[in-house]
Amino acid sequence: MKNRILQVFAITSTMAVLISCGSEESAMPELSFEEALQEQLIQAQSGDVISIPAGVHEITRSLSLNVSGVTIAGEGMDASILSFKNQVQGAEGILVSANDFVIRDLAIEDTIGDALKINESNNVQILRVRTQWTGGPLSTNGAYGIYPVQSNNVLIDEAVAIGASDAGIYVGQSSQIIVRNSRAEYNVAGIEIENSTFADVHDNVATNNTGGILVFDLPNLPVQGGRNTRVYANQIFANNTGNFAPEGNIVAGVPAGTGLMIMANDNIEVFENNFENNDSANILIVSYLINELPIDDANYDPFPEAIYIHNNQYQGGGETPDSEPLALLQAATGQPIPDIVWDGMLAEGKMASDALCFAEADDTSFVSLDASNGFAQPSFDTTAHDCALDRLSPISMSTSSQ
After folding, report:
1. What is the rounded distance in angstroms from the CA atom of residue 315 to the CA atom of residue 167?
2. What angle do CA 319, 323, 325 make, to 5 degrees?
3. In 59-210, which ranges are E strands?
4. Rounded to whole angstroms, how far apart are CA atoms 383 and 139?
């Protein structure tokens, strides 16, 4: 079906109707921008392109879409702005449950909750979209900026996420994921891949977050077994913003100054990234047990395994750790925290090389914290981790950038 190009301003034009007593006409009230946009989303058909003109457009209620094959397109992330600053209804800015969905070239600002949530959708493209809370990093900001969950074939390209109280760019319980060429800043977690499989996170900038990039697997979620993520060619620097997540959120435990944190995830390849001046540690690899939280999920594996780290660059970092064990380590050694930090926890019957292998420059520093023994005997010996793992395959998908 030929695409119908819908223009918001067309719906807001003056309309008139004939009233019952002959030819007398009476002008109907014009629709507001918000009303017109809501109407387009409700009446959308597959193939429609809903255009958002340049300007700052005030939105007071959540927008939603559940029709597949629709594109929402603005004129640029700094030109077409949906402002939810005076939002009075709804848990999100935009909620989408639809396949073959594209959103591009616009901004979503100051939502009460998540900015853009995409749920149970296949073939999703999020291109040149900015989500932002303009008042800075506050615990009252919405949790997630860009938030696909339980979805497949997800492409996030040239996005910007600022100010989320949980994660700026978050993909959860999903598969076949690419996050590339994007920037995450002043979030608790800049970019987070959680309980997901087959993801490529590359050529992004993560800076001024509490933690730059997180790859987590958590218990008690419908989809578990996070694995097969490649984190490469990213700029991960100065992620030293104090943790402003609301108390009780799992990311509230992320130390400020974390570059990359891998928790309870398997088959992760980290390569060709540039880590600089992350004040707690450039890389943290930990078991879920480090949180000292009970696990009541019999199917959950809390230990990371098959983590392969190679060919990265490190500069600075570890100078002022925001973690009691790391601060005690620094006090004991008089040195910055090493570039690669592993908590040292292993599943029964496993060896250190089952958890972590790395091939880095000779001056790359490392510590195993001996967390399972109360951090009693940290080790700086890299011998057990002098190994290589099979390279993971690139992620490919049928969608292409528009």
Report:
1. 25
2. 100
3. 61-65, 71-73, 80-83, 89-96, 101-109, 114-119, 122-132, 144-149, 152-157, 160-162, 167-172, 175-180, 183-185, 189-194, 197-202, 205-207
4. 42
Phi, psi of 302 (to 5 degrees): -85, 0
pLDDT for position 21 = 36
Residue 277: partners with Cβ closer than 8 Å, 6 or more residues away:
237, 238, 240, 315, 316, 317, 319
Owner of token pair 């997901």: 196
Question: Which residues share a beta bridge with 200?
Answer: 178, 230
**How many residues would you count in the chain?**
402
13 CB-near residues (< 8 Å, 6+ apart): 30
Verdict on whether the full-model pTM lies above 0.90: yes
- Compute CA distances 118 → 61, 91, 150, whole Å: 17, 13, 8
Q: Contact, 85 vs 140, CB < 8 A?
A: no
The predicted pLDDT at position 259 comes to 98
Strand bridging mode 114-119 / 144-149: parallel
Please give the pLDDT value at position 340: 98
**Phi, psi at residue 200, to the nearest 5°?**
-115, 125
At 57 the pLDDT is 98
Task: Write down the H helix ranges in 177-263.
Answer: none
Note the pLDDT tens digit of each residue in 174-208.
999 999 999 999 999 999 999 999 999 999 999 99
Whether the CA torsion 116, 34, 128, 119 is positive or negative: it is: positive
**Given the DSSP bridges, would you call strands 197-202 and 175-180 parallel, antiparallel or unpaired?**
parallel
Tokens 């690139």 belong to residue: 394
Q: Write the single-letter amino acid at 289.
A: L
Residues 35, 63: contact at Cβ < 8 Å? no
Residues of the chain where predicted confidence (pLDDT) is lower than 50:
1-26, 399-401
Q: pLDDT digit string (tens) for 279-300?
A: 999 999 999 999 988 899 989 9
CA nearest to 178, candidates 189, 191, 161: 191
Q: CA angle, corner 181, sides to 197 and 156, nearest 5?
A: 45
